[in-house]
Structure formats: structure tokens, C-alpha cells
């Protein structure tokens, strides 16, 4: 075990006394938030009417967090440190809120919660109260980039914040319940990606307070040697601060924290002086302290401090139980608020001096309001990377291969604030051109074989690890501190981060619409590739386009979905998304070769509109159409065009309108989404009474969900993925899900009144085609050449 010499106390008696009092002030405020609606300074005896009617919030982790924050403040002042703090324990906001309030920054942002008795009353009342704030470190919490509503992401957020921030120290308190989650377990490996020359440092503090809501925590109940071996095996150098006696614990923490900061600085100085970035054993701290430390020892004959009963509200009924009202009052008065706050209700002067000043205050650190530091990307001209499409639908190109060349130049121009993230799939997703600008980040061991196409480098900026959770956590921490990036992943497994996306979208919604002091941050850009319709060897497990359904459930203020049909459209969409702020942009684009339809000028126009009629594929010029053939997605677009070609050959007089959708939210009414079309514009594309055969990349129900209020919804017939698949050829997969050209043409014949009867022979031929092509696929294991190399002939 790493040892710290505590024989010579770090803190003199006066400093120790002040720090302990400051800690008491934090704990008093944390408890007051949970219980008090009035009498905030206990200047009269506590009465039932002073107690909140509903007691909500969590006490258990707050004293430990406040303890750490007080000690961080000492070193920030002593060493002029640049520190961001991330609270991992669930519902741990009272500690961070109390610290922010005592630093004075909370009142600067929210003047009505001033540093006086009236302001403290409002500060208490707002907590876990209707119209107020929640018990997590929500966006309303100054200094927070991590809400903690869902556990497991604190450490990955911390590393994301540290990347490319060489002066920053991110202290992450990891809850011992949180440490049981899968995302947190993988994020310990983030230390293999931290470059001590160009990056900041992360100091994890594992808080072992022993209990979750009603159960012990695993890491608190395994032998010391086993825990140390686990953390050492993760690549850390753990230091242990353990106990429950405040004076001794203050001395231990002061010595240990100062030693760890010194170790971090020594690692960085050595690497920066030598110019050699090697993976060190970064220090970390294990803080073992009682759950609900300094709270009531016992309530109603049951142990509270040091047990699971301290997790939430340790005294559940003070307003209705006179005995427990006295217990609560005794607990609060032990902190001696009369000695902590002056006659006006402000923290006394000698304690105010313990907090850092200005932007060195943890709650005021600009990295936790990343838009303050954000710089626009130096963007290349995306049009220069466009494909010469030739005649529409005549050339096959991999869209992501084209995108990779553009991203390479984006990376090259922004080598300190742009990264690409992906789970071991950058090469698989045809983005290898990025490696010309930067290789993959790697600070673990190297092997000679890595030199032959391994693309690994300590200076790399492509972040690959086979944990979508960790990657998304890094990415969120990176953008929330003002930097830019793109995350490329397989479509079927982007679901791994469903809930992380949900949490980030909720953060953006709150920050964007309600908190003017939070500046806009770069968007999360998700490139969804390796798509459902091209899973020839992976099969059914890799066929799931349902992430789009998850995205559409979130606020229209923060989500966008784009389905560019070809490479030029993908470039236009990517340029737009990388420049944007405060969104989650989802781009659906496959890595396999696909037909190209639009030259660059036409692609820009089409993507700017988000939806439009392709005149070259339509036959209704100057007349009302008989049928609208619509599509969204690369394979649906090709199959729809192929169906149009069949219909034009079989029925030359049929008036067809071809509509392609890039921006999926254009389908919604403008009253429900900022990108939505007015009813008049929607009707001008889709008509009010003609059949619409809509071929969709994902599940058909999603299009109905987005368009259910439209006048022509009853005539909207959507084809999409129907959860049918195996080791199929591309056309066979399309056929069994009825998104193929033959099924679309049959549906059009059935829906157009003028084709009833006259289209019977054509339908028979189309059914024969389906049978023949499926049989060929099963016999030969491949689609026929005329399918594999199909092109548009008009």
C-alpha cells in the first residue's frame, strides 16, 4: 500500500480549526436543504412549521464530499490550482450546492439566494421543492458538468474534461454504489489514454461509505488487500484515508491530497521536460468514512450514522414526532450555526478567507461552463471534398470514406480541440483517412507488430476503446468543457448509450432553455453507420435501426436526425453539425459503396431544405401526381428509385413525384418542431389526397408518429424494417422487410386507382421477380449482378 507520512501534521492548529468549522458550515447547509423551509439559522427554537412538508433528498454522501471540497479549496489557494470537481454519488448535490453558496458564486448567479438570512431561507426552500431544483448536480448547479441522475459516468466525464486541458485537475468523487456499475468499471481504464504532456490530470477519489439505499456496497466489504490489488490492477496508485474522527481525518486528508497533487505535478513536469509521454501510475485516493458522517448516531433505536439509514433522510418524521424534532434540532445545533454565520446570515469573515477567489473557485471554474472557453473550429471547405457524381445514380462510392478525408482535414486544423471517438471501428467504418492527421491514442504497452498498420501513438487524437459507455462519457466531458468531436459507431450497438444520450439531452434542454448563464457548448455528433441493410455476414444481431425512435422522444429543442442519401449530402450535413451548438445530431450514413445522386451544389441545396422533390426522378412536372414515392435513407432511396424505374417502364403515363427526406424532423408540423414543415408546405410535397409510398430506413411506425397530424396521413403507407433478418443478401433482406423495389412497385399499383385492373399483369411479374431473386440468393449466396450493380437509367 502506498504510504503517506502523517507523523508531522500538515495542518497547524488554527488552520485545522478553521477548516473543520468550514466543513461544519457545509454540512449544516446540506442538512438544512433537506429539512428547513424557515428559521434557516435556528435563531428560535425549531418548530414543526419550520420543517418542509415533504422531506426529499439524500444526506449519506454529503459530508464526505464536503470534506474533500474543503481540502481541495486549501490546495487551490496554496498552489493556485485549476480544479473541476465531479460528484459521482447519486443525489449528491447538497454538498456541491453548499460549497457553491459558501464560495459566494451561487449568489452571484442567483441574486435572490443572497448571502444573508433571507437568501439562505430561499436557498433551503428551493431544494427538492416544486419550482426549485433537484437533488442531483443538475445544470442549475454552478461548477457542475455531471448531473449524476444515472450512475456510472462520473469518471469518464472527468477524463473527457481533462483531455487537451494541460493545466486542469479534475477531481472525481466516485460513489461506492456507483462503482458497481458497468460503465464506471470500464472507465477506470481511461488512465491508459491520458497523455501527461498535453492533457490535464484526473484524481479519482473512491468514496467508501459502505452502503447504497438499503444494501452494503461491494467494494466496502471486500478485504483491504483485495481492493488495493483491484485498483492497482487498473493502473492506479491508491492512497487510503480511513477513519471517523474528524481531527485525525483532516490531517490524513491534508497530507494525502497534497502528496497526490505533488505526484501529479511531478509526472507532468517530467513528461513535459523530457518530451516523452509514457503511462505513469496516476495517484488516486480511497476515502473510507461513515455514511452520513456527523449526522445523528441513532434514531428510534436504530443506528443511522454508518448505516444504510443515513442514505436519504435520516430523521423521517420531525414535523409529526416531537421526540425526533428534538433529535433533528440537536443535530443541527451541533454544527453551531451561530458561530458560522454573522448577524446578517453570511459566513463569518475568517471562514470566507478559506475559499478560493474569482474563477479559481470550483463553482466558478470556466471549464464547468464550457461555452465560455469554446472556440469555433477552423473548418475546411467541405465542398472541396465532394464526389463527381456524374449522372444521377450512376456511380458507387462509400460515403464514410469520403467523409473520412474531410474529417482528416478538420482534425489537422484543430489539433487541440477536436477528437474522433469510436469503439474499435474507425477502420471498419471506412474513416481511416483520419489517421493521416492523427493516429489512435494509446499509452499502454506497444508491440513491434503495432508498427505495421496499428495506427497507435501516444500523441493520437482518435479515441478507441471497446466500451461505448466510456467513449460517450469522454465525448460528453469533452464538449461540456468547450471542445468538439464526432462519435462513429455501429448502428445496432449505439443502443448501448441510449440512457447516456437521454441524460445528456435532458442536460442540454435544461441548460439551453432555462439557464442563460450557461453558454452554448459544441454539439454531440453521432455518426451511425454499418447500417441495418448491409449486414450480410453479421446477420440479425446487427440489424436494429431503432435508435432513431429513442432520439425522437427527446425535446425538439435539442435533437436532430439526418439521413443523407449520398456522400455529397453527408459532407454538407457533417459540416453543418460540426459547426452547431447545444444539440445531439444523429447522422445515419453507411460505410458500404452506395449510389451517388446529387452534385455538390444540388446536395447543399437539398440538405439546406432538408426535404425536396427530385425532378429528375419524377414524371409529374406541371401536373398533379398519381402517386408520391418518398424515401429517407440510402438503401430506401435506391430501392425507391428502382421501383420508380420499374413503374415508368410498365406505366409510361403514370405521374410520379419523387420526394427524398434528409432532415427527418421536416416531417413534423412546424408547431411541434423547429425544423418541421408548415401544413401547406407538407401538402405541397405529399399532396392532400394522393397515395404516398414512403420507404424508410428504420421502423415504419416512426414515420407515422411524426406525421400523424398531417391531412394526408391516411394515404401514407410506410415501408421499413420489420425485425426480420438473418445472413441475407442485401436484396433478400430488403424483400423480407418489404422495402425492396418489387414490393414498393406492387404497393403503388395497389394504391393508385387508375392502375387497378390494368396493373394485374405487372403485379404478377413483380411477384415472380421476388421469388426468383430470393431463390438465386439462396442458391448462389449473392444477389444477381444486375442488382449488385444497378444504376438509375431514368
Automatic annotation (TrEMBL):
<dbReference type="GO" id="GO:0005975">
    <property type="term" value="P:carbohydrate metabolic process"/>
</dbReference>
<dbReference type="Pfam" id="PF09364">
    <property type="entry name" value="XFP_N"/>
</dbReference>
<feature type="domain" description="Xylulose 5-phosphate/Fructose 6-phosphate phosphoketolase C-terminal">
    <location>
        <begin position="591"/>
        <end position="792"/>
    </location>
</feature>
<comment type="similarity">
    <text>Belongs to the XFP family.</text>
</comment>
<keyword id="KW-0786">Thiamine pyrophosphate</keyword>
<dbReference type="InterPro" id="IPR018970">
    <property type="entry name" value="Xul5P/Fru6P_PKetolase_N"/>
</dbReference>
<dbReference type="InterPro" id="IPR023962">
    <property type="entry name" value="Phosphoketolase"/>
</dbReference>
<dbReference type="InterPro" id="IPR018969">
    <property type="entry name" value="Xul5P/Fru6P_PKetolase_C"/>
</dbReference>
<keyword id="KW-0456">Lyase</keyword>
<dbReference type="InterPro" id="IPR005593">
    <property type="entry name" value="Xul5P/Fru6P_PKetolase"/>
</dbReference>
<dbReference type="InterPro" id="IPR029061">
    <property type="entry name" value="THDP-binding"/>
</dbReference>
<dbReference type="InterPro" id="IPR009014">
    <property type="entry name" value="Transketo_C/PFOR_II"/>
</dbReference>
<protein>
    <recommendedName>
        <fullName>Probable phosphoketolase</fullName>
        <ecNumber>4.1.2.-</ecNumber>
    </recommendedName>
</protein>
<dbReference type="GO" id="GO:0016832">
    <property type="term" value="F:aldehyde-lyase activity"/>
</dbReference>
<dbReference type="InterPro" id="IPR019790">
    <property type="entry name" value="Xul5P/Fru6P_PKetolase_CS"/>
</dbReference>
<feature type="domain" description="Xylulose 5-phosphate/Fructose 6-phosphate phosphoketolase N-terminal">
    <location>
        <begin position="12"/>
        <end position="372"/>
    </location>
</feature>
<dbReference type="Pfam" id="PF03894">
    <property type="entry name" value="XFP"/>
</dbReference>
<dbReference type="InterPro" id="IPR019789">
    <property type="entry name" value="Xul5P/Fru6P_PKetolase_ThDP_BS"/>
</dbReference>
<dbReference type="Pfam" id="PF09363">
    <property type="entry name" value="XFP_C"/>
</dbReference>
Amino acid at each position: 500500500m502506498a504510504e503517506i507520512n502523517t507523523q508531522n501534521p500538515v495542518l497547524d492548529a488554527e488552520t485545522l480549526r478553521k477548516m473543520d468549522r468550514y466543513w461544519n458550515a457545509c454540512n449544516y447547509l446540506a442538512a438544512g436543504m433537506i429539512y428547513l423551509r424557515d428559521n434557516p439559522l435556528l435563531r428560535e427554537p425549531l418548530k414543526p412549521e419550520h420543517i418542509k412538508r415533504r422531506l426529499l433528498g439524500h444526506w449519506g454522501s454529503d459530508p464526505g464530499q464536503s470534506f474533500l471540497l474543503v481540502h481541495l479549496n486549501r490546495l487551490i489557494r496554496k498552489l493556485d490550482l485549476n480544479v473541476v470537481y465531479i460528484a459521482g454519488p447519486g443525489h449528491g448535490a447538497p454538498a456541491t450546492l453548499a460549497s457553491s453558496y459558501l464560495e459566494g458564486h451561487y449568489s452571484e448567479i442567483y441574486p435572490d439566494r443572497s448571502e444573508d438570512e433571507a437568501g439562505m431561507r430561499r436557498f433551503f426552500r428551493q431544494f427538492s421543492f416544486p419550482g426549485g431544483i433537484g437533488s442531483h448536480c443538475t445544470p442549475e448547479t454552478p461548477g457542475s458538468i455531471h448531473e449524476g441522475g444515472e450512475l456510472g459516468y462520473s469518471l469518464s466525464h472527468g477524463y473527457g474534461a481533462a483531455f487537451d486541458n494541460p493545466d486542469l485537475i479534475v477531481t472525481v468523487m466516485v460513489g461506492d454504489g456507483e462503482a458497481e456499475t458497468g460503465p464506471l468499471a470500464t472507465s477506470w481504464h481511461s488512465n491508459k489514454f491520458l497523455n501527461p504532456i498535453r492533457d490535464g490530470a484526473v484524481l479519482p477519489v473512491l468514496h467508501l461509505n459502505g452502503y447504497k439505499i438499503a444494501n452494503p456496497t461491494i467494494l466496502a466489504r471486500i478485504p483491504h488487500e483485495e481492493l488495493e490489488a483491484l485498483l492497482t490492477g487498473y493502473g492506479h496508485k491508491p492512497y487510503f484515508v480511513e477513519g471517523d474522527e474528524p481531527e485525525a481525518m483532516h490531517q490524513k486528508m491534508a497530507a494525502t491530497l497534497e502528496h497526490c497533487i505533488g505526484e501529479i505535478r511531478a509526472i507532468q513536469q517530467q513528461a513535459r521536460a523530457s518530451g516523452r509521454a509514457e503511462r505513469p501510475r496516476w495517484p488516486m485516493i480511497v476515502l473510507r468514512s461513515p455514511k452520513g458522517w456527523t449526522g445523528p448516531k441513532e434514531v428510534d433505536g436504530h443506528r443511522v450514522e454508518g448505516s444504510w439509514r443515513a442514505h436519504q433522510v435520516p430523521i423521517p418524521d420531525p414535523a409529526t414526532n416531537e421526540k425526533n424534532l428534538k433529535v433533528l434540532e440537536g443535530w443541527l445545533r451541533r454544527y453551531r450555526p451561530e458561530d458560522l454565520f454573522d448577524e446578517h446570515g453570511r459566513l463569518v469573515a475568517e471562514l470566507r478567507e478559506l475559499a478560493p477567489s474569482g474563477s479559481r473557485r470550483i463553482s466558478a471554474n470556466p471549464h464547468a461552463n464550457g461555452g465560455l472557453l469554446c472556440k469555433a473550429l477552423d473548418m475546411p471547405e467541405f465542398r472541396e471534398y465532394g464526389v463527381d457524381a456524374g449522372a444521377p445514380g450512376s456511380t458507387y462510392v462509400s460515403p464514410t470514406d469520403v467523409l473520412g478525408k474531410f474529417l482528416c482535414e478538420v482534425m489537422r486544423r484543430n489539433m487541440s480541440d477536436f477528437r474522433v471517438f469510436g469503439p474499435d471501428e474507425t477502420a471498419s467504418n471506412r474513416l481511416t483517412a483520419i489517421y493521416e492527421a492523427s493516429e489512435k491514442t494509446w499509452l499502454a504497452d506497444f508491440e513491434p507488430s503495432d508498427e505495421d498498420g496499428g495506427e497507435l501513438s501516444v500523441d493520437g487524437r482518435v479515441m478507441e476503446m471497446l466500451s461505448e459507455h466510456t467513449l460517450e462519457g469522454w465525448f460528453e466531458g469533452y464538449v461540456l468543457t468547450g471542445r468538439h468531436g464526432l462519435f462513429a459507431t455501429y448502428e445496432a450497438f449505439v443502443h448501448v448509450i441510449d440512457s447516456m444520450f437521454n441524460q445528456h439531452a435532458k442536460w442540454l434542454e435544461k441548460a439551453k432553455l432555462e439557464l442563460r448563464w450557461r453558454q452554448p457548448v459544441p454539439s454531440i455528433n453521432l455518426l451511425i453507420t454499418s447500417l441495418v441493410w448491409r449486414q450480410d455476414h453479421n446477420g440479425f444481431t446487427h440489424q436494429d435501426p431503432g435508435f432513431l425512435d429513442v432520439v425522437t422522444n427527446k425535446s425538439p429543442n435539442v435533437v436532430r436526425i439526418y439521413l443523407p442519401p449520398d456522400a455529397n449530402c453527408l459532407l454538407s450535413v457533417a459540416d453543418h453539425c460540426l459547426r452547431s451548438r447545444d444539440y445531439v445530431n444523429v447522422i445515419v450514413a453507411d460505410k458500404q459503396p452506395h449510389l451517388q445522386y446529387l452534385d455538390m451544389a444540388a446536395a447543399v441545396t437539398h440538405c439546406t431544405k432538408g426535404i425536396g422533390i427530385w425532378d429528375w426522378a419524377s414524371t409529374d412536372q406541371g401536373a398533379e401526381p398519381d402517386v408520391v414515392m418518398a424515401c429517407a435513407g440510402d438503401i430506401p432511396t435506391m430501392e425507391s428509385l428502382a421501383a420508380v424505374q420499374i413503374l415508368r417502364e410498365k406505366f409510361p403515363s403514370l405521374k410520379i413525384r419523387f420526394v427524398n427526406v434528409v432532415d427527418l424532423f421536416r416531417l413534423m408540423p412546424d408547431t411541434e418542431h423547429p425544423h418541421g414543415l408548415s401544413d401547406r408546405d407538407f401538402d405541397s410535397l405529399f399532396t392532400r389526397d394522393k397515395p404516398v409510398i414512403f420507404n424508410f430506413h428504420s421502423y415504419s411506425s416512426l414515420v407515422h408518429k411524426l406525421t400523424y397530424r398531417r391531412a394526408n396521413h391516411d394515404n401514407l403507407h410506410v415501408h421499413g424494417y420489420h425485425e426480420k433478418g438473418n445472413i441475407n443478401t442485401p436484396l433478400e433482406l430488403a424483400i423480407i422487410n418489404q422495402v425492396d423495389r418489387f414490393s414498393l412497385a406492387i404497393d403503388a399499383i395497389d394504391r393508385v386507382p387508375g392502375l387497378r385492373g390494368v396493373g394485374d399483369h405487372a403485379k404478377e411479374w413483380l411477384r415472380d421477380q421476388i421469388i426468383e431473386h430470393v431463390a438465386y440468393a439462396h442458391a448462389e449466396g449473392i444477389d444477381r449482378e444486375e442488382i449488385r450493380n444497378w444504376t438509375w437509367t431514368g
